[in-house]
Amino acid sequence: MPFTAPAIKSFQPPRRTLMGPGPSDVPQRILDAMARPTIGHLDPAFTDMMEEIKQLLRYAFQTGNKLTFPVSGPGSVGMETCFVNLVEPGDKVIVCVNGVFGGRMVENVKRTGGIPVLVEDAWGEPVSLNKVADAFAANPDAKVLAFVHAETSTGARSDAKALAELARKHGALTIMDCVTSLGGIPVLIDAWGIDAAYSGSQKCLSCTPGLAPVTFSERAIAKVQARKTPVQSWFMDLNLVLGYWSGEGRRTYHHTAPINPLYGLHEALVMLAEEGIENAWARHRAMHERLKAGLAKLGLRFVVAEAARLPQLNSLAIPAGIDDAAARGRLLTEFNLEIGAGLGALAGQIWRIGLMGYSAKQANVDYCLKALEAVLAVEAQPVAVI
């Protein structure tokens, strides 16, 4: 059958400034790395690079965990990898829900056959330590505590160290979502005692979407090895994936890894190491302070209290009388600037401005403030009645 759409040509994306909740702007250096020649996923040169990625990810996660690698898939696949390996049917899992992504954790627990015990906090608030302590008191047989470190839907940060201490006190493992926090604020896996964590390549690491860094402690590995039931996912079963990522002896074929995207992640992690992770954290904080000063002049109000506010994900209350979709549409069409809308319970009520990775720079902050000022001036004008 002949192809009947001759007008379709090579796709040329518009040039945007990405300041939403992800993806972030990707530096040309990373794009160039991804354009290098494709080689086989079992090629010795490629497997050497895989070992370097593991070393670099240990630096990003601030961990010595041997089992640290990128899952082939977006952050959601990293999330599932943690849950399907660490939760068995009948396991009680205390799940902290203070936004959209805590809710997704609940769904993962249900689909693994686990029993979710919900600890709910208002959207925009950090997870309540007292509520978690009460949940453990009421459920001393809980096997896992799951929480989002940096809730992308609200811009709230929870106290990961204190939550992990509660879990250890009660003999439970921890699963932490650090999709939005890795590379932007301190993520200290070993110092905090986190057992399993997952992230994404497209946020503060400023790579393209499609890879999910994960890390597992020795306690977590012991849990996987002691399972009474098979891991429900063949693709995400750590017992199988590690044959490819282990680097011990001859690697076994598991799946065809996304070779060129892994080039990009390698380059992104090299760039993080060159900058120094503490410097990266400081840069995100400095750009947040610059944005905060400018937003105050525009009269825009943060949703999250300052003590729990993420520097890399800024949630703002939409001013009264401003049409959410129309304003964001103007930013996109007139300024090629993308910011994020609210999700779930906050849809239509907030904007989310991301300062992630390569997007966390002065030029972007100043451009965003200028564009917001212009759009708000137009959108705030009363509509003439004819």
Automatic annotation (TrEMBL):
GO terms for molecular function: alanine-glyoxylate transaminase activity; L-serine-pyruvate transaminase activity. It comes from the Bacteria. GO terms for biological process: glycine biosynthetic process, by transamination of glyoxylate. The keyword Transferase applies. Belongs to the class-V pyridoxal-phosphate-dependent aminotransferase family. This is Alanine-glyoxylate aminotransferase. It comes from Sulfuritortus calidifontis. Keywords: Aminotransferase, Pyridoxal phosphate, Transferase. The modification N6-(pyridoxal phosphate)lysine is found at residue 203. Residues 29-343 form the Aminotransferase class V domain. Substrate binds at residue 352. Its cofactor is pyridoxal 5'-phosphate.
